[in-house]
Amino acid sequence: MKQEMLINVSQSEECRIAIIEDGALEELYVERTSADNYVGNIYKGKVVNIEPSIQAAFVDFGVGRNGFLHISDVEPQYYRQGGIDPDKAFDLPEPTGKEASAGGEDAASATATKAAAAKRRVRFGDRPRVKPPIQDVLRRGDEVLVQVIKEGFGTKGPTLSTYISIPGRYLVLMPPLGRVGISKKIDDERSRRLLRDIMVDLQPPKGVGFVVRTAGTTRTKQEMARDMAYLLRLWKSIVRRMRKYPAPVDIYQESDMIIRTIRDMFTEDVGRILIDDPAAYERAREFLELVMPAYASRLQLYEGSEPLFHRYGLEDEISRIHQRKVPLKGGGSIVIDQTEALVAIDVNSGSFRTEKTAEENAYQMNLIAAKEIARQLRLRDLGGVIVNDFIDMRREKYRRGVEKALHDAMKRDRARTKVLRTSPFGLIEMTRQRIRPSLRKSIFRDCPTCDGTGMVKTAESMSIEVMRLLGLAAMRDDIVKLTVTVHEEVSTWINNRKRREMAKFEDTSHIELHVLGRESVSPEHLVFEATDSKGKVVRFP
Q: Shortest CA distance to 490 belongs to which of 450, 514, 526, 455?
């Protein structure tokens, strides 16, 4: 499995990162400099309003839009039982020489520290299971340390959480966690046990939690210690800044998309990273030499005359991402419709045929579609509720097979997903974590002509609407002249097919009627200009 990471920054307004696998585009990330990207940033905010009805607080964190903080995202340290001071809850003891060093402790003392470290761990089960009402936890004017976990959508502000997490290359620092954890994606029990032993040997400061990322599965103790020391230094600087400045103020900003993607997505399978901008190349090189020096040689500056994405044939592939219909191998297709609340995906067999039975044909087509659906969800960054309408299959064996294929295809997705069993109607419902607007929402805007519906009225429908309004005008005594401006196609329809009705209207109402057509207006454009006997414009309708 050969992977390459291509980073296109030739246009200063946009950064695009593509991950290709055996020549095929598997993941795409696009970020505009004009867009506000807050996810991952940490702020010291001030509570400006409490809404008990939805158990949420609105927090001013200094970006012009208040953030949404639900009670489920409020860390127990903020509970007012005993008058807990949030500042004191974030105390971080000075790391000892062993904790701050990149090498950790010596082997002789490792065994002795394991029991002590295990004894001080705090498990999630020790925390209060029942959340108190938010009005008993926070009050207007309280200062809170929050992290943006989801971008705002439409009129909704960003979603906030007080459960702070700061990712490194191999570890994630989670101050309130208070223990060492292992990523759930690492399912090998032997690897989990080895990683747990390494973390105990490193002696993280008391009361500070770490989670080992999947990227840390095969890392050495030295590499993990270096990552831990970096995160602890970063956290201490965050705490100092939090105490120094009053709310609202930004405390920590996530790395730019290039550093973030290399940090989170780079694996040993990525044989090469190509960047087409010298300045971005230098930033990435410095990061790799600091965090992953062994892989710095895989970074290369692309200096070809042909644009990078064109060189790899990605531009045509990216343009197809925005199409509603996606062709599949063998003649089938999937149709993707995105609405405000959910995404509907329909699988069509098209001309797909094999020499087997209809049931077997449907099964094979659904297996191909399941893999492509997972790929399209990643590429388009679609989130929320997703309903997949696969081709109907009667055999339970085939239904379970399609479910498993979709589960397996979604495993490489970084977003949290949950896939349900096939419903009695043959639908597979699922959810995918929505962090930011989809790629389509980021690049396109709603059509001002159809208001995003994708449909406009026909010329016949518009002409009928015009004739209805003329009936209303005939009842007015103050109108002597009426000019109707519509799209050229509508005016042609009216002048050709409604000529008799127009003549009758003028005879009975004594109103002079003019229908004007314009080509450069919307198909639903309809403007009436009415004047009275003195030439004065009157309101109509």
A: 526
